Amino acid sequence: MNDRFVAADKAALPVNDLGVQRGYGIFDFLRVSNGIPLFIDDHLDRFYHSAREMRLPVRQTKGELKEILSALFQKNNLPDAGVRILLTGGNSPDGYQVSAPNLVIIQQPLIPPSSHLSQACKLVTYQHQRQMPHIKTTDYLMAVWLQPWIKEMDADDVLYQQNGMVSECPRSNFFIVTGNHTIQTPARNILKGVTRKQVLKVAAEQGIRVEEKDISIEDIRVAKEAFIGSSTKRIIPVGQVDDIVFEPVSANSVTTRLFDLLLQNEREAISTGV
Amino acid sequence: MNDRFVAADKAALPVNDLGVQRGYGIFDFLRVSNGIPLFIDDHLDRFYHSAREMRLPVRQTKGELKEILSALFQKNNLPDAGVRILLTGGNSPDGYQVSAPNLVIIQQPLIPPSSHLSQACKLVTYQHQRQMPHIKTTDYLMAVWLQPWIKEMDADDVLYQQNGMVSECPRSNFFIVTGNHTIQTPARNILKGVTRKQVLKVAAEQGIRVEEKDISIEDIRVAKEAFIGSSTKRIIPVGQVDDIVFEPVSANSVTTRLFDLLLQNEREAISTGV
Question: Is A20 close to B86, i.e. CB distance below 8 A?
Answer without folding.
Answer: yes
